[in-house]
Amino acid sequence: MEFTTFNDMLRRAAWRKPEHEFIHWSDRQRSITYADGEKLAERAAGALAELGVKKGDRVGLFAHNGLDYVIAMFGIWKIGAISAHISVLQKDNLAYFIKDSLPKVLIYTGDMHGVITDIHSKKLGVEHFISFDGHRDFARGWSGLLDADLKPPEVKVSDLDAAHLSYTSGSSGPPKGALLAHGYTARATHTIAERLNLSSADVSLGVTSLSSSFHLVANLLPGVHRAMSIGVRKDWDPQAVWQEMDARGVTFFAGNPLVLGDLLSVSRNIGRKPHALTRCISGGAPLPPDLKLAFYEEFDVHIIESFGQSELGGFVALGYPRREPDKRFYAIGPGLPDRETIVADEQGREVPVGQPGELLIRNNVMIGYWNMPEKTESVIRDGWLHTGDMGMMDEEGYFTLLGRWSERIIVCGRVVFPRYMEEALLKHPAVHYAGVIARPNQEMGEVPLGIVELHSDQAVTSQELLVHCQAILGVKDAPYEVLIIEKMPMTPTGKIGKQELIRLFGH
User: Fold this and answer.
1) What is the DSSP letter of 283?
2) What H or E segment, with its residue span, contains residue 399?
3) Which of 188, 364, 395, 417 has the largest CB neighbor count within 10 A?
4) Residue 97 maps to which CATH number?
5) At 451, phi and psi to the nearest 5?
6) What would the pLDDT profile of 238-296 be if each residue is shown by its tens digit?
């Protein structure tokens, strides 16, 4: 199968299933068909072209999940422009993203108008502002632009042309804009749809932000490949989401481990899963093994763990929707066929099976970091993307992720990674979130410090949590100390804010 652009994918789906539901916007109970989606994307493209948007221009998207967000993306892509995705959770840093991406047009959600007004006053080079929620002061209304029904110009867009700018989470430094091409992400999401065994009969729901690369490659684009019904939602309300999933017959759910944990709790309280649910995909953070096991044993639902990065437009590795043998039940699945992945030592040499090293990836990776050639050269060397993630691969190609190389803790010269300690802490019923960081120690160089947030209705002491970890891992591999804090800092993509923990407690 040939892959060119995202709009070719939408056009193919509209030809195959014109009257099939394309997008269901849960918050407002609005749906459109694939035929309608293609027509609306044409109108969006025409409206943007009328505002002077040309091939290669950036159009910023600063909005909550919704039907309009999806249509705007396809309109941007149709005329060869680049969608620059900015999370509303990073509104305090909006000026940074504007200065970095230099969008000609900024499209936003109405409740962000106050922030947008400040940006408008700073005159950062944005030529046009568009509000999804109607005309406001200096901003045009989205629906009015679409109502003009302007025909877009014919623009040649190839598989090698840039499509979207996805920013890294900023968990390990300032966010970087990873520039992805149409064809690479199209091929990647086709392999994801294949691995997940998706079909047009599936009904999905995604609750992570459309500004994140995870939602694009886990829910939206694989769904378009299969012409399936794709659900998007702004607000995470576990009870309401469970009810919606049950009513809509959702078969496939995309979320991070935090929302999956909430979904498990609601299912337990109700006494059953949403009736049609068969599989979930998890991303954004390591999946606690007990969560995966609980879904399978209690509700016969497969959680497929993914491992990817903003730099990929896809995943490095992904599991199958099946029960794996015990020896690899907790591993991420094997690599996907759209790219080559090896585990390498510090010199970039592939290590033997079962040995830890850095994951290196070749083929179907980002064009580069936007306006950061030095950063690009530092991570793409000799054609290999150096992920900075440490892992191991078994004899059948299944990956086990150990953690970020930058998060390693060197205890008396021995390198340890936080993941197993975090998983041990999460095994305690009182623990809601857990993160482990390095703390300097005069005698040992560094020691692992466990930091947890408890469930609101639970109580336990730091010493009890330490003993709990020691019983699971042994004294040598357990945290040196455990702290209990009131609120865990989080990144916009749902990861624990390790940098903030280091700033607060890593001294």
Assistant:
1) -
2) strand 398-404
3) 188
4) 3.40.50.12780
5) -130, 125
6) 999 999 999 999 999 999 988 999 999 999 999 999 999 999 999 988 888 889 999 99
Here the tokens at position 6 are 């995202």
Q: Kindly give the pairing relationship between strand 82-85 and strand 58-62.
A: parallel
CB 448 within 8 A of CB 498: no
* Token digits of residue 448: 């692992």
Domain boundary (147, 181, 215) is at 181
Determine how β-strand 481-484 pairs with β-strand 445-454: parallel
**Which stretches of the chain drop beneath a pLDDT of 70?**
1-3, 170-173, 493
Residues 34 and 407: their CA atoms lie apart, in Å, by 44
pLDDT at 354: 92
pLDDT for the residue 2:
60
- Residue 290 exposed, middle or buried by CB count within 10 Å (0-12, 13-18, 19+): middle
The answer to the question of residue 277 being in a domain is: no
161: DSSP letter: S
Cα separation values, 84 from 120, 367, 445, Å: 18, 15, 42
- Number of domains forming the structure of the chain: 2
Predicted pLDDT at 3: 61
Distance CA 189, CA 315 (A): 9
Question: What pLDDT, on the 0 to 100 scale, is given for residue 327?
Answer: 82
* pLDDT (0 to 100) of residue 326: 82
Measure the CA–CA gap between 493 and 211, rounded to whole angstroms.
9
Residue 488 sits in a domain of what CATH number? 3.30.300.30
**Residue 467 host element (H or E):** helix 462-473
Does the residue 473 lie in any domain? yes
Kind plus residue range of the DSSP H or E element containing 223 = helix 221-225
User: Measured between alpha carbons, how far is 172 from 264 in angstroms, rounded to an integer?
Assistant: 30
Please name which of 100, 94, 89 lies closest in space to residue 118, comparing C-alpha atoms: 94
From CA 393, how far away is CA 401, in angstroms rounded?
9
Residue 425 lies in domain: 408-505
| 267 alpha-carbon distance from chain centroid | 24
CA angle 422-384-285, nearest 5°?
20
pLDDT of residue 193: 97
Q: Considering the entire predicted model, what is its pTM?
A: 0.91
| Structure tokens belonging to residue 252 | 């496939």
* Closest-CA residue to 217 (of 198, 189, 240, 236): 189
Q: Are 356 and 231 in contact, with CB atoms under 8 Å apart?
A: no
227: left (phi over 0), alpha (psi -120 to 50) or beta: left
